[in-house]
Amino acid sequence: MNKTRTEHPLSRRALLAAVPAAALGAMAPAAWAQSGFPNRALRVIVPQPPGGGFDFVGRALAERLATALGQPVVVENRTGSGTLVGTEAAAKAAPDGYTLLTGSVSNMVLNMGLYKNLPYDSLKDFEPVGLAVSYSYTLMARNSLPFNNLAELVAHAKANPGKLTYASAGNGSGQHVLAAALWNQAGVDIVHVPYRGAQAAYADLLGDRVDLFFDLTPTTRAHVETGKLKAIAVSSAARNPMQPTVQTINESGVVKLDLESWFGYFAPGKTPPEALDRLRAELAKIIATPELQETFRKAGGTPMNISVADTRTMLARDVQRWTGLIRAASISLD
What is the CATH number of the domain that holds 80? Predict the structure, then answer.
């Protein structure tokens, strides 16, 4: 005689319900891989208008990343409040791997010191994908000024407090922060004249209406080579091949200070590791190509080759360092 087994009425239903849930959890990474990330267009937020360093690097990487991923990579210029609007939009975007940010020293480092109520935290709200290139700044002076290097400039400024002026592309710009930190460390009083963009600053510098201006070295090259302006110092740790006879700030003996404006891609925090791994692998190959490196060199940049771990370390170090320098120079935008 066969005995009929008695089964609790809920046990079979519970088991059937549990198995799919467990299976789904175990299959999540596999399902992600099978979905073929990316399977639709990506976007790169550039937090500055077209035509500048952000846009140049953002588009150079986007074009090549689209080919590598087999999906369109659309560049979106999100401007406003310096770099705040676009960077905040990227920080709050869905962390699914389909939104990237073109990050630089200005929006990832300097803003952390410039704003007490910044709507994002570059150390917590973003994941580095890859840094591609860096550019030094060159300090220029109008030709009629009686000095040719930083030590002479500082001596002149100390003898004439409040008489010299320096331009910037706006309050809180890299040109402003670097110069203000330099003058503060050197103990000189030089008056800041902010402009709406670099073009207006150049017009007044060339017209002898302002005395000094820090700008990215590639942009300064034509003015220095034609003799319209004179180069006083470069901000990089080593001399720039574009201007090999120009001393670094450190070489001047005045202060120890260096800054290069690096550019690369960041993703919103909590982006899935599988998406980050794919993006990082493809971007690393792109950055390493001789063709792209030559493009950056011709534009006056220094190609970068830095790991994700080293990027995190550098970002944390730069944020700490420049927040201190900015606050010591009493610069604030809120």
Answer: 3.40.190.150
